[in-house]
Design goal:
The chain is an alpha/beta fold. It has helices at about 15-25, 55-60, 70-75, 120-130, 165, 190-210, 225-230, 260-270, and strands at about 5-10, 35-40, 45-50, 65-70, 80-85, 90-100, 115, 135-140, 155-160, 170-180, 180-185, 215-220, 240, 250-255, 275-280. It binds adenosine-5'-triphosphate and zinc ion.
Amino acid sequence: MENISIGIQKSGRLSEKSLDLLKESGIILANGSRKLLSSSRNFPLEAVFLRDDDIPQYVFDRVTDVGIVGENVVREKGHDLQIVERLGFARCRMSIALPRSVDFGSLDQLNGKRIATSYPNILETFLAETHVDAEIHVISGSVEIAPGIGLADAIFDIVSTGSTLISNGLKEVEVVMESEAVMVTNPGLSPDKQEILEKLLFRIRAVRKSHDHKYILLNAPNDRLDEIIKVIPGMKSPTVMPLAEEGWSSVHSVLNENEFWEIIDRLRELGAQGILVIPIEKMIT
Ligand code: ATP
Ligand code: ZN
């Protein structure tokens, strides 16, 4: 039986969530991430622990079949890879930031200026598209200190909460791209490997879906049942069972996290009682 190999960040912001995703997909890896390789004993998969920057190249060269890496890194490296799944974690954006003291009007202001970054390719493409002629200074770390020490007039870097910018006296003026962790592959896997990948993706999708859904149980007075059911559509439609107490029913359904609080408020207005909300472990639709 063939194996699929997956490149995972050895240690960093993506590591834990990548391993959690495999774990929640029921894939058990032998003794963690301290080695270069780790095979699963219950799924035809082998994890290869790498620096995140190397993952696109490894996947492109077919050293590993798939990889989990930030979309920003995929774009920066520029290999023609296929994103098979967006994973929703390690969300951030890549932005241009200026010293807070500089008035910002438009991107034209960057003409002739020096921009420090660790992502020269994404920046170069963006500057070309927006017809800005700036000088790109590549530095490998701590980009945010470059303006303060006179190395650059602006930076182009990862932003998540923005607190790093603020503590370095910078302000975000232009979002160039949004990023999240993605699973990538180089198309053209063998049919066996493709089949394993489909199985893996099926599980990952079930796990991800379960994360943003909740199971809800509540007691509803029968005279408001129709209205209550309209508020909670459920996967198909809610399950309704009579309670031992006359005139009341138990309603079970699945709610999306996004609309969760709004629906709960509505249900209380309609007289629902004893509302229980339970996490869903897997969700297969
Ligand atoms: P490695 O040692 O593997 O090269 P690294 O230092 O380059 O690690 P991390 O800092 O672990 O990488 O970040 C990995 C990815 O996490 C980034 O490429 C980006 O996609 C994402 N990310 C999300 N939020 C942030 C953030 N606030 N700072 C940095 N990266 C973030
Ligand atoms: Zn890195």
